[in-house]
From TrEMBL:
Organism name: Pseudoalteromonas arctica
Name under which the protein is recorded: Orphan lipoprotein
Highest rank taxon of the organism: Bacteria
Length: 178
């Protein structure tokens, strides 16, 4: 997977992000070696992420839909999807909620591109408010973790090889301090 990461990152840096039409946008400018690279994230993209983070305190009640029949966990389908079409809210034994989405991806190239695109969006929305990002990469996986403090939920974006395919998972989980 490492063979695709560096070219993908370079391509994103050089090409920048294209903005969606008819949406209000904020623009961040980064200057590197006498070259200005503009990146754009729509307010809608950041507000969805911020709404999810804010929803953690209430157990994501505002995005829960129907309850999933499962005798082992309390789980609901969610009406907000960061990736894929199947996102859930799960209540653990300590009564702490987490939000998770998972989607299968066909090719390694597509997997790396989609992971890096979402990681970039998260980075642009979160690091300006003090969040710290760490990224870990192996031959078959990429993990991007965003942490603010010991009281705020942790955001994890992970992409892993599963059999002959790949899967990307997005999760907002209880803080590290709990």
């Amino acid at each position: 997977m490492k063979n695709y990461i560096i070219p993908s990152i370079v391509a994103f840096i050089l090409a920048g992000c294209t903005s969606k039409t008819n949406q209000t946008t904020t623009t961040a400018t980064t200057t590197t070696t006498n070259q200005s690279v503009k990146t754009t994230v729509t307010l809608d993209e950041c507000s969805t992420i911020n709404n999810l983070i804010n929803g953690y305190e209430s157990g994501f009640n505002s995005i829960k839909t129907d309850k999933v029949n499962n005798q082992f966990t309390n789980q609901w389908r969610a009406n907000t999807h960061i990736i894929g079409a199947t996102c859930t809210v799960t209540l653990n034994k300590s009564e702490q909620a987490s939000y998770q989405c998972q989607t299968p991806v066909n090719t390694q190239t597509q997997t790396v591109k989609s992971h890096q695109k979402l990681a970039k969006q998260l980075r642009q929305c979160l690091t300006k408010t003090g969040w710290f990002e760490s990224q870990k990469e192996t031959a078959s996986s990429i993990y991007s973790t965003f942490v603010l403090d010991t009281k705020t939920p942790v955001i994890t974006l992970s992409t892993n090889q599963e059999g002959n395919g790949f899967s990307t998972r997005f999760e907002i989980a209880p803080p590290l301090g709990l």
